[in-house]
Amino acid sequence: MARPREFEPEEALEKAMLQFWAKGFHDTSIRDLIDRTGVNQYGLYGVFENKRKLYLAALDHYRDTITRKALKELDGDGPIAGRIEAMFGTLFKRMRTKDGRVGCLMCNAAVEMAPEDAGVAEKVRAHMEHLRGAFRGRLAEAQAAGDLAPEKDVNALAEFLATTAYSLGFLLRAGVSGSHARRHLRTALSVLG
Prior knowledge:
Shape: elongated
CATH architecture of the domain at 58-192: Orthogonal Bundle
Radius of gyration: 18 Å
Structural class: mainly alpha
Number of strands: 2
Largest sheet: 2 strands, antiparallel
CATH topology of the domain at 58-192: Tetracycline Repressor, domain 2
Number of helices: 9
Helix content: 55-70%
Distance between the termini: 64 Å
CATH class of the domain at 58-192: Mainly Alpha
Order of helices and strands: HHHHHEEHHHH
CATH superfamily of the domain at 58-192: Tetracycline Repressor, domain 2
Strand content: under 5%
């Protein structure tokens, strides 16, 4: 008879995501994951198989929680520029945690792992497309409602804003000041005007 699982996989995944977010894949040891999650190696690997698959699951969890929550800001009322600014504000808050300036987990994965791991590269590409699609949809709605100038290229703006999310993550991870990051964001948002 199999022993009942002594931990909640989603809770362990959340904690593992935070560990990878703070230290990256290569600098996170199995001991770090055990300490962070409170789950032994056999428990973690019993559910996730190995460190790499746990990392891939953490990237999915990031998209499904952190990114999805931030993108919900686009669904609010008011001018599209204000909703996009609120979305970036939500991301900005999450990119600075008790672990320090962690930036964006997907940005970190793009730099650290995507060049050497096709599975991670695919997760990063899918995440970028997820961002572009969300921006594209809301910008098109705003343009149809007269809240965005008709001459604005919705596809180009969506690509630019998705890239801005990544650049903000890179800047914060690199340790730039909050005021520098906010200036960067204000300049980026000026293209909506």
